[in-house]
Specification:
The protein is an alpha+beta fold. It contains 5 helices and 11 strands; from the N terminus they run ααααβββββββββββα. The chain folds into 2 domains: 2-82, no CATH class; 99-212, Glucose Permease (Domain IIA), CATH 2.70.70. It has helices at 2-17, 43-48, 51-67, 78-82, 207-212, and strands at residues 99-102, 118-121, 127-129, 134-141, 147-153, 158-164, 166-167, 174-175, 180-183, 194-201, 203-205. The relative contact order is 0.14. The structure holds zinc ion (ZN). Residues 102, 115, 117, 119, 196 line the site of zinc ion.
Length: 218
């Protein structure tokens, strides 16, 4: 591959020095062109002809065009980039239109002890979605936490959604990332409507870190 690339780079230099036209327009050779109907998440198509293989083929084709005396050096078709498989959605932020009002490990008059979660303040009744997929292991009132839904994720981590005004899932139910589990409320000890999110791995861990590790920025 690198040999091909350096060959192409030299070809481009030669072409540029010679004042030749270097074009990025035009369809890729039929052997490498993907059907436009191929979708980005089609694993079947990607396993049949991966993007890397196509790039390689295109570089060869481009070099071949130059070697044959052609004036146009083709660039990889956009289809190749578009067909790069998308990562499956594994996590989403639980609330939209929020601002953070409490972070993990904070202490102060708002909390009886060190704060063990991440607080998303949002309008009362706002939708709360599961941050990660899993199954619901409990739904109910839990003292200072108020109305709480607990989801066990596939990696074993336990996610608590607290202070809710309503729960919209039942114990045993499977949820995907983004599935609504409840609504923002004021149940339990809270001075304003917000989601108190906790993540447990034996003991509470920082939800902010858990979310950023999944590519999210709370
Ligand atoms: Zn909190």
């Amino acid at each position: 591959m690198s040999a091909h690339r350096s060959t192409l780079r030299r070809s481009l230099l030669v072409a540029a020095t010679a004042g030749l036209v270097i074009g990025g327009v035009g369809a890729a050779p039929s052997a490498t062109a993907a059907p436009s109907s191929t979708t980005a998440d089609s694993t079947t198509a990607d396993s049949a002809a991966g993007p890397a293989a196509d790039n390689d083929t295109l570089v060869l084709a481009a070099t071949g065009v130059h070697a044959a005396g052609g004036l146009v050096i083709r660039q990889p078709a956009r289809d190749v980039l578009r067909r790069t498989p998308l990562a499956p959605v594994t996590a989403v932020l639980p609330v939209a239109g929020y601002h953070l009002t409490g972070t993990f490990g904070a202490s102060g008059s708002n909390w009886s002890s060190t704060h063990t979660g991440l607080d998303f303040a949002a309008a009362y009744g706002s939708r709360i979605g599961a941050a990660v997929a899993g199954h619901v292991v409990s739904v109910g009132y839990d003292g200072a936490f108020g109305l709480k839904v607990v989801v066990q994720a596939q990696d074993g981590s336990i996610w608590w959604y607290c202070h809710m005004s309503a729960a919209t899932v039942e114990v045993g139910q499977s949820v995907a990332a983004g599935t609504q589990v409840g609504a923002i409320g004021l149940t339990g000890n809270t001075t304003g409507p917000h989601l108190h999110l906790e993540v447990h791995r034996g003991e509470p861990v920082d939800p902010y870190t858990e979310l950023t590790a999944r590519g999210l920025t709370p």
